[in-house]
Structures are given as C-alpha cells and as structure tokens.
UniProtKB/TrEMBL annotation:
One of its GO terms (molecular function) is metallopeptidase activity. Residues 37-101 form the Metalloprotease TldD/E N-terminal domain. It comes from the Bacteria. This is Metalloprotease PmbA. Pfam families: PmbA_TldD_1st, PmbA_TldD_2nd, PmbA_TldD_3rd. Belongs to the peptidase U62 family. Residues 242-454 form the Metalloprotease TldD/E C-terminal domain.
Amino acid sequence: MSDVAISQDASRRELDRLAQLAEDVIRRARAAGASQAEVSASIDTGLNVNVRLGEVETVEHTRDRGFGLTVYFGRRKGSASTADLHADSIQATLEQACAIARYTEEDPAAGLADATRMATQFPDLDLWHPWAIDTADAIALGQDIEAAGRAHAGISQSDGASVQMGESVSVYANSHGFVGRERGTRHSLSLSLIAGDEAGMQRDYWYDTARSADDFISAQMLGDKAAERTLARMGARRLSTRQSPVLFAPEVARGLIGHLIGAVSGGALYRRASFLLDHAGKQVMPSWLTIVERPHLMRGQGSGAFDAEGVATRDSALIESGVLARYVLGSYSARKLGLVSTGNAGGIHNLVVEPGSVDGATEDFRGMLQRLGTGLLVTEVMGQGVNTITGDYSRGASGFWVDKGEIAYPVEEITIAANLRDMLAGIVAVGSDVDKRSHLLTGSILLDRMTIAGE
C-alpha cells in the first residue's frame, strides 16, 4: 500500500470531519455578527518520486491542510486562512476575518452567490481512485520509464523520470446551508530526455496524467514517446521570416483555447482588460465551430457538480456556431457586469472543442497534416508574449516544417505572431486527435496564417 494514501473509508471520515468543522465555524461567524459566511477546507496527500540515471534523486511525501474563511458584514468582506486545523488556529482565523470585514470599505458586488443557484444534486463522477503504490514501487516504475527511454539509440542523457500520486478531499460550505463535498485523485508520470551529436543537443519530454492509474499508458510506451520526440528534434533548423499556415499540436492548441477563456472571464471584463470586451452574442470564431463546457464528464480532469461558490454546474455552450454565447463568470464578476453567475467561480469545468472544419470534414492528426499541406507544425511555445487587452500574440516556438502533408525537418528559434482576434476567426480545422490530459479538451488546431519570424 502507499505510505500516504487515504483509504475509501478514511476519505469519507475526513469529509465528515471537514463538513462538521465548516458548519461549526459558520455558526460561530454568524454569532460574531457576520451576515453571511463561507468556508473552504481541504486535505491533500501525495507521493512524488524523481529518478535520474537509475538513481533516486528525491522522494517527497506530502499531507497539506487548508482552511479558508470569508465573512460578510453587509457588503464588507473579510477573508483569512490557515494551514492548521487545530481549534486555536481556527479561532484565530475567524477573529482575523471578522476584524478585516469590520474595517474594509463596502463593495456592492460582495456577498455569497444566489441561494437559489446552489447545487442540490451530487452525482458520482468517478473521480476517486486511490493509487496503492508505495515508495519502492514508485521508484521501480520511474526506473522502468527512464530505462525504456534511454534504451533508444541516440539518447545521450536523461533529465529524469517522475512518478506522482495525489489525493484530495475538500468541503465548501456557506451560510445558505449549502455543504458540498468533493474527493478526487490525480496521478502523473513523466520523462525528460536529451539527445546530442556533433551538431548540438536537444531536449524533449512526455508525460501522462489520469484520475486512475489504470488509465496510464505503459512505462514502455511513455519512455518510447519521450525518446521519439527528443530524437525527432535533432538537426533542427531556423526558418526565414515568412507567413504560412500554422498547425498547433493538441498539447499546444489548448493554450490557444486558454487565451480565449482568459479574454471572456469576468475579471478581465469588468476591469475592461480584454480584446473581447462586449462581444457576447457576436461572431468571434468560424460558424462551423462549437465549444461546450461539460462539467459532469466521468473521470474528467475538471469535473465537478458545483463551482467554488456552491453554484450548480451544467452543460453550457461557450461558443455556439462561432458566436460567443456567454462569458465565464462567478457571482462577484457577474454582479460587477450586471449579469448572473455562469457557475464558473474557480474556473472552467471540462471545455470541449468539437472537432470539425470549414468543409465539414473531421480528421485525425495525419489528416490535419495533409490539410496543412505546406506550413509550420508547432509542438512547443515559449515566453509570455500574449496581451489579453489588445489580443497581440508573439511567442517563441519550435516544431516541424511540413511539406505537402509530410514532416520535412525540425525547426527551432523562431517566433510566431498574429492577433488573437484574427487567430480565433482564422481557424480552418480542429482535429479529432484530442489530448485528454487536461480539462481543456481539444485536438490539433489549424490556423490559416501567421507570421513566422526567423533568420
């Protein structure tokens, strides 16, 4: 068994304890004069093993506790938190939150989410899969992954393999009488390798993440994938400056969707810091493209029955036939904008970019390369060159030059640039090669044109 894992029964006991603690603190906050109160409490456990060149580099066992309390005295808000669940620390946290609230300025948007929006159904979304792996077995698995990668001819060095096990139990409760309990597991494997010859060195990696360790690819497959990606980068060239179609590999494409989410999220909107300000109901992407939030996917990386304020989650289109159907709002940002919460306090839950194209065809990665024809395949982006206010996008990149639908050679030390408004509108196709290792579920994305700055 794992040295740190929480058993099935123990997880339920922990949830009961956290729920009782949260309800008790809310009662005490009301007794202290708070008109409203909310509590978030969690216990996270984990095991993290790193192996390099067959030897153990680090072994880390974690057991972290968190307790956060927010109280409202009318429209005045105070928040405090602690990593200690002992009675004295909880009392001090309560006193600090109340003291802060009594002296802060009133904020008309402050307060709990609408009581009528609280979740009332809590389906089992199959998120709890403790991994019964102990330290010795985790080390052995890391060594197997690394050995599989290093066995490939041309691999000269390893940056190490990692095996991580993680479990979390948490409770959110508020003075509406809502008590929401969640428990989930998230485990991961990774390997980073180096290849080198007289022309230089290249580094690449691969990883897998899953709710259940039963869903992992094998150690051999992960090692092979990391080695293949690393060796494929050998002999990388720079490109001359040009414009061309660009295909984002799935693991990079989800970053583009992340920029969309950032631009339509409440915080950016009420601060008027978004290039998509006042765009709800307007065409922002091609008319064939739909993006839907699906919070209740079984074993989903972002699945949940309620958001960080207890608001019930539900399936809801974000982009419908290319039109921005709504924003991404919690109750505070919604009030600032004169709107209502979309159940997204704390973020998005499983955003699904539906595959398709301008001509109606749906294609896998090979088909997407054929559709690209001659252009750039991007497999990695670097830097922070994205301005959400203006939409300007300029980032370092590497990947492969594709000629007539076939990968011709690797490229590096280039910059890709455009404006996000044009990038979103210029999507030609979304592949069926969906990367399931994230709550942003998208295949590769083909853009009609970007500027590539190179030599």
